[in-house]
């Protein structure tokens, strides 16, 4: 993708992100408005590159299902994720989220990504752990129109301009001003003083369930 002419003044893009739903399973909604004067962005591909901290992750199997139905397009780096790992054993996750044009605005794009909170270590006092999501980087690739690249810088991203292309293209990083510099996700955590109670209840439940299974096996099982 090559951008040839400089016809529009450069302005910062505006980025907003919002967490929908409650609890461990949320939707991350990202909105971008390109700050380009005098032209629309109809021929551009827009993506948000965001780094998720260890306290939050994307389920690659869920994402594959959504992509199969053309509901969400994203690239995960790395693409192999341990969805069972707790926060203190996990690593950061880089996500390139492809955005769809907003029909109500010629320069606006939006996309939603399902994200999940990881289990944290029990806390001493607070019943919530805070996971901080930084504002994403805005990437643009314009192949069919003549938007200005004067204030854009090439980004080192090896990914196609859209989910349909298979070969990487040249992405450009757009200067932007986030509505909020960071987004806070509150994840429920257990309290250390409840550890003994949880262990006792878990042990009793395990013994009870095992006894019921053994009793049913002895009553209804057929042994040769």
UniProtKB/TrEMBL annotation:
It is found in: Endoplasmic reticulum membrane. Its main location: endoplasmic reticulum. InterPro entries: PIG-X/PBN1 (IPR013233), PIGX (IPR040039). It comes from the Eukaryota. GO terms for biological process: GPI anchor biosynthetic process. GO terms for cellular component: endoplasmic reticulum membrane. It is a single-pass membrane protein. Keywords: Endoplasmic reticulum, Glycoprotein, GPI-anchor biosynthesis, Membrane, Transmembrane, Transmembrane helix. Pathway: Glycolipid biosynthesis; glycosylphosphatidylinositol-anchor biosynthesis. The chain crosses the membrane at residues 195-218. Belongs to the PIGX family. Stabilizing subunit of the glycosylphosphatidylinositol-mannosyltransferase I complex which catalyzes the transfer of the first mannose, via an alpha-1,4 bond from a dolichol-phosphate-mannose (Dol-P-Man) to the glucosaminyl acyl phosphatidylinositol (GlcN-(acyl)PI) intermediate to generate alpha-D-Man-(1->4)-alpha-D-GlcN-(1->6)-(1-radyl,2-acyl-sn-glycero-3-phospho)-2-acyl-inositol and participates in the sixth step of the glycosylphosphatidylinositol-anchor biosynthesis. Probably acts by stabilizing the mannosyltransferase PIGM. This is Phosphatidylinositol-glycan biosynthesis class X protein. The lineage of its organism: Eukaryota, Metazoa, Chordata, Craniata, Vertebrata.
